[in-house]
From TrEMBL:
Annotated protein name in UniProt: GTPase ObgE
Domain Obg: 1-52
Domain of life: Bacteria
Family matches, as PROSITE patterns: OBG
GO BP: ribosome biogenesis
InterPro entries xrefs: GTP1_OBG_dom (IPR006169), GTP1_OBG_dom_sf (IPR036726)
Matches recorded under SUPFAM superfamilies: Obg GTP-binding protein N-terminal domain
Amino acid sequence: MKFVDEASILVVAGDGGNGCVSFRRENISRKAARTAVMAATAATSGWKPMKT
């Protein structure tokens, strides 16, 4: 005996929304990132390992 299954699948995409900000490139973003890295480096450079 053979069985035949059937299924209906409805796929609907969204309307796209307002876009994605992660692909936006600006000069100020790069400057801010460099400043954050320099600040983090300066903050961690003063740390000394503790003896346990």
